[in-house]
């Protein structure tokens, strides 16, 4: 990771704010998000809109009642008459309207809070669900992680936009009713208010768009900062941080990146402060121009004193609402830009997927699994990891696959499990191309434990149950799988037994050694009870005695099943029915241990080199 070169750019690209076309086109993102909001809580959405509509008409109702009360008092003084007998009941009505408005406002706030939680849960679940469906190639692409990072942020940050859209609808309705009321006195008052507010709209939209551009540009840098935070606080890195004296390097790298983001944020904030202050003067000028016009009209006798009082109040509310409408409308349009990444993330589709007419895996598999002239290069590269590779795994056969690092052993596992599809050639199950089978059904019939297996910070039971999660409540099956992998000995030592929390991330957790974690992973494979069992370096963290015990059981448990074993330890591969040797992506030798030793090729050479280290 090149920390230094990543922090040299400190300016915000101005070109992002050069056109309104991009901003307006982003509004196309709003309907899909509104559908998501509706999906997460239709009843809450309906109640929120009903309450907002009722709340929107309250200001005009209260103004009309206030106008009548003030005019009644003025008429009483002017004509020396008593107040109408129902005057105090109208006062009670105004109080009741104000109380209802307060209750409605509380109800809207409750709906917003509830809808925010529902939306966050819904959209976060969709992000996790969609990410789990994407090809493994996506997780090997830095651009994917940038997009995923923005999608995760937008899943939470856009809650404010959802509430903003609800508030915008309410403000528009309130402003319309108040504007009609004001226009009934003088249309010029309304035009002055609108004219003063439009520049603020343009300014807010411009700087909101620049804020999106800045955040977009900062995503890779923020991911690197997150990575440094993870390193600085991780148990795995703690030893090397101390022994190699990396503290200052990490702190300085983090501080440099944080300072870069700080400079960019301050630069934009300063520009927004100056421009926003100047534009707000225009809005203030519009309000006071309307205010002066009302005073002049009252002095000339065009408006009554009651009309003056009510109009001033109405103008103040409309002025504030207009500014908020334009700010919120601009905010919705510009926040819709952020939704581009979220919707773009959801638009990503896996390349490796089941066909509509996909068929089920044969039960049992009768002819085995065959690689026919398979070549493969990882996406984005031209180097062939496998070249015209041919290999046949027969039913009930246990095959060990060896070779130096980078020769394609793990790649073969990824191709069998359809994490990738071949660049050329075919992989066949019972003579039918692997791509013709249902992908989920294929995974159901394969049990795989990779060398870099997951250490789930869950209970011991769940750590095993992930191998066949639908049998999580079958404690007898989980216990049997633990016994097969010798994980039962590990579980017996845990204070909480099967329910013991593993790992140190959560309170009460107990960490395991590398070998103990590996036994838990092996138990998952045994619980899966699939037709094909693949173990990629399954005992690398076990001591020799435990390794021997595991493989003695492995030989028993794979009777009648297809098993593919990848290992660098020749003491274990000797137990296989057949040993396959890979070199430069090509199958160069195969046979039993005795046959390969007699042949005196690469296998014999590698075996003697490893054996010599134990003499």
Q: Could you provide a short overview of the structure?
A:
The chain is of the alpha/beta class and 615 residues long.
What does this structure look like?
It is built from 20 helices and 10 strands. It has about 625 residues and is of the alpha/beta class. Among the domains are: about 30-345, ABC transporter type 1, transmembrane domain (ABC transporter transmembrane region fold, Up-down Bundle), CATH 1.20.1560.10; about 455-530, Rossmann fold (3-Layer(aba) Sandwich), CATH 3.40.50.300. A 6-stranded mixed beta sheet has the order 6-7-8-3-9-10, with helices on both faces. A 4-stranded antiparallel beta sheet has the order 2-1-4-5, with helices on one face. Helix 17 (about 545-555) links the parallel strand 7 and strand 8. Mean pLDDT is about 75; it is low at about 1-20.
Main attributes of the structure:
6-stranded mixed beta sheet, 62% helix, single chain, 4-stranded antiparallel beta sheet, disordered N terminus, 9% strand, alpha/beta, 615 residues, Rossmann fold, ABC transporter transmembrane region fold
Overall body shape = elongated
- Please, what is the oligomeric state? single chain
Across the major sheet, the strand order is 6-7-8-3-9-10
User: How far apart are the termini?
Assistant: 41 Å
Strand pairing plus helix content: what structural class? alpha/beta
How many beta strands in the DSSP annotation? 10
Let me know the average pLDDT: 77
Query: How many alpha or pi helices?
Result: 20
Order of helices and strands: HHHHHHHHHHEEEHEEHEHHHHEHEHEEHH
Unreliable sequence segments: 1-19
CATH superfamily of one domain: ABC transporter type 1, transmembrane domain
CATH fold description of one domain = ABC transporter transmembrane region fold
Radius of gyration: 35 Å
How much of the polypeptide forms β-strand, as a percent range? 5-15%
Instruction: Supply the CATH class of one domain.
Output: Mainly Alpha
**Largest beta-sheet details:** 6 strands, mixed
**Do you know the CATH architecture of one domain?**
Up-down Bundle
């Amino acid at each position: 990771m090149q920390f230094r070169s990543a922090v040299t750019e400190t300016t915000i690209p101005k070109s992002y704010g050069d056109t309104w076309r991009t901003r307006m086109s982003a509004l196309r993102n709003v309907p899909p998000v509104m559908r998501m909001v509706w999906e997460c809580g239709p009843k809450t959405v309906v109640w929120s809109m009903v309450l907002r509509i009722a709340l929107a008409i309250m200001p005009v109702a209260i103004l009309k009642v206030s106008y009548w009360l003030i005019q009644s008092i003025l008429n009483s003084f002017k004509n020396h008459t008593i107040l109408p007998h129902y005057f105090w009941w109208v006062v009670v009505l105004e109080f009741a309207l104000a109380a209802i408005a307060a209750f409605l406002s509380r109800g809207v706030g409750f709906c917003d809070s509830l809808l925010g939680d529902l939306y966050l849960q819904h959209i976060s679940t969709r992000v996790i669900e969609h990410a789990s469906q994407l090809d493994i190639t996506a997780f090997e692409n830095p651009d994917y992680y940038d997009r995923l990072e923005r999608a995760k942020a937008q899943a939470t940050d856009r809650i404010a936009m959802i509430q903003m859209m609800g508030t915008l609808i309410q403000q528009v309705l309130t402003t319309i009713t108040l504007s009609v009321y004001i226009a009934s006195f003088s249309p010029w008052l309304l035009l002055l208010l609108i004219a003063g507010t439009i520049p603020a709209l343009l300014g807010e939209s411009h700087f909101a768009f620049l804020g999106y551009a800045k955040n977009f540009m900062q995503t890779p840098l923020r991911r690197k900062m997150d990575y440094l935070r993870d390193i600085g606080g991780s148990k795995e890195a703690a030893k090397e941080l101390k022994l190699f004296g990396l503290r200052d390097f990490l702190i300085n790298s983090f501080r440099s990146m944080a300072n870069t983001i700080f400079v960019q944020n301050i630069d934009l904030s300063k520009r927004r402060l100056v421009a926003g202050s100047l534009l707000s003067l225009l809005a203030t000028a519009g309000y006071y121009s309307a205010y002066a016009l009302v005073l002049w009209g009252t002095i000339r006798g065009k408006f009554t004193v009651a009309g003056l009082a009510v109009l001033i109040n109405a103008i103040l509310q409309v002025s504030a609402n207009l500014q908020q409408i334009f700010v919120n409308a601009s905010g919705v349009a510009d926040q819709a830009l952020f939704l581009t990444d979220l919707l773009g993330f959801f638009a990503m589709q896996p390349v490796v997927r089941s066909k509509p007419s996909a068929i089920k895996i044969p039960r049992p598999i009768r002819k085995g699994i065959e690689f026919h002239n398979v070549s493969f290069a990882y996406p984005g590269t031209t180097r062939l990891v496998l070249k015209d590779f041919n290999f046949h795994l027969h039913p009930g056969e246990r095959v060990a696959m060896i070779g130096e690092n980078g020769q394609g052993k793990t790649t073969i596992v990824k191709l069998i499990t359809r994490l990738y599809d071949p660049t050329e050639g075919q992989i066949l199950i019972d003579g039918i191309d692997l791509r013709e089978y249902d992908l989920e059904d294929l995974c159901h019939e394969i049990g795989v434990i990779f060398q870099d297996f997951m250490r789930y910070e869950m209970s011991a039971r769940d750590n095993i149950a992930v191998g066949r999660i639908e049998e999580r409540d079958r404690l007898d099956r989980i216990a049997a799988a633990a016994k097969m992998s010798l994980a039962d000995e590990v579980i017996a030592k845990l204070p909480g037994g099967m329910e013991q929390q593993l790992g140190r991330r959560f309170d009460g957790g107990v960490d395991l050694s590398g070998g103990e974690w590996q036994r838990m992973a092996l138990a998952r494979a045994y619980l899966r009870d699939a037709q094909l069992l693949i173990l990629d370096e399954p005992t690398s963290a076990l001591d020799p005695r435990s390794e021997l015990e595991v493989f003695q059981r492995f030989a028993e448990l794979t009777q009648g099943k297809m098993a593919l074993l990848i290992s660098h330890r020749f003491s274990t591969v000797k137990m296989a029915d057949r040993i396959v040797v890979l070199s430069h992506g090509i199958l160069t030798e195969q046979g039993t241990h005795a046959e390969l030793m007699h042949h005196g090729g690469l296998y014999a050479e590698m075996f003697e080199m490893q054996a010599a280290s134990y003499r």
